[in-house]
Structure formats: structure tokens, C-alpha cells
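Posting this for the archive.
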Amino acid sequence: MPDTDYALLDLCSCLLREPQRLLTADRLPVQTRVEVATHSHADVLQMDLTLGCDGHWSLNGKNVTPSRATATVFYPGIAHGYSITAASDAAEICNFKMRIELTWPAVKQRIFPALLHNVPVPAPLQHALHRIARLNVNTQHRPPLLMAALVEVLCLWPREPGQKILSLGARHEIDARLQPALKLLEARPRDPPAIRELAAAAHLSPRHFVRAFQSQLGCTPHEFATARRLERARQLLLQGRISVTQAAEELCFPSIHTFSRWFRRETGLSPQQFRQKPDRF
């Protein structure tokens, strides 16, 4: 087995042993302009897949223009920032960050290319990225399905031409009975459905639904609904043309003050501080 494959397996093993090393996992639909000031991380590995976007990155002082599908990997110490706009209705950025050790072989060897343009995006990779964003709800507990999806993404991540990805075993999906309830929750971040409605969609009793939901996703339906609402708030705030008041109205908060208090309680930052914080990506 090539050294890079051993390094990748070592990385996956470390993350499975210490799932708290996964810091963030986001899927951001790009609707207007998304801007992030140039910054770097001391001990964080950040991986982004950008689809259908225009604009540029600042990458160690150089501007880089995205392609139809661009894979970027920001190793510790690499200065980077964004000014991204949508080039298609399906424009999005899939992004996740992991706290790593600089001595790990995957980091020392830089097994993932820093920048690849026009990469093929197989459906399993995109599905796994979307699963990570969906499952990344409770930062205190990382459910096994989340870490399985992370390992899947790392194994499927685009490599240099000619390099083969590692083969994968059976994929681990969320219980099919829960899918209708998840669709309801994701479709209504402003007005989350009640447990009885969600349980009926899953054809389960409320008690069995909550138990199955928490077992699969590592959080309660209420926690999931709050996370989806917070995700939508973050998406709105990252679109620079939308005011905080407009974001509060979009999410059905009675006032900007109620929204700001809720956002600070959930993130530790005010909406304005979140917009100014450069390391959110």
C-alpha cells in the first residue's frame, strides 16, 4: 500500500478515536456574495469543495479563481480568504475543519492536494458531505454515522490525476423511516413541526420516534430543529446584502433583539460579531 494510503488510514483512525477533533461541518448555499477575511489556522486542517461559484480566494497572498468544481485544502499556517458569488442556482460551499497534530503523517506528507480545479464530484462524495452537514448538530456528542460519513469523505476526496481513491465498504445511511421527518424539519426551519407530526411522518409512535431519532443522529428532534434554524441564520448572515433585521424576520423572530439574544446564546457571538469573525470558514 502506498505511503499516502497509510497516512490516510492513520488520519481516519485518529479521528474515529477522537471524534471531538471534528470542529465544524457546513453546507452553505451561495445566494449572493460570501466574503471571509484572510486568516490562517495554527492546528486546523480545513477542506472545502466549492460548486458552481465565481469570484476568488486569497491563497497565501495570491488570488485564485474557482472552477465549476474546486477542491481546496488549507493546511495549518496557510493564509486564505474568500470573495465568492453564485454562478449557478446550485452554487454551494461544503466545508469542514478538523483539529489535527502537525506530526501526523497525513499533515507532514500533505496527502491532499492544496488546490484542484474541475474535479469530478461523484455522487457518494456529495451525499457524504451533505450527510456530515446534516448530522453535525450536537458538538458534545458525535454520533457514529457522522464519523462514518467523515471517513467516507476523506477516502473519496479528489486526488491528483492518476491517484486512486481508497475503496470503501458498505455505506451507513440514516434509517429510511426517519427520512420524511428529516425532510419536514429541514423544510421548515422557521416553524419546526411538533413531535406528533414528525412521528406520524415516520409511521412511529412519538416515544419510539424520539428514541430512534436520538439513536441515529445523536440529538433530540428539538436540538436538530434548533441547529437547522441556526444553520439558516448563519447562511443569511454570511450573505452580505441581508441585514440582521431581515435575517430575524426571515426566521420569524418577533424582533431583532430576540434574534440577537438567541443567536448569542447558541454561538457565543452576536450576529454582527459573527459577520466579522474571519475564522468561521
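The CA atoms of residues 181 and 197 lie 8 Å apart. The mean pLDDT is 87.
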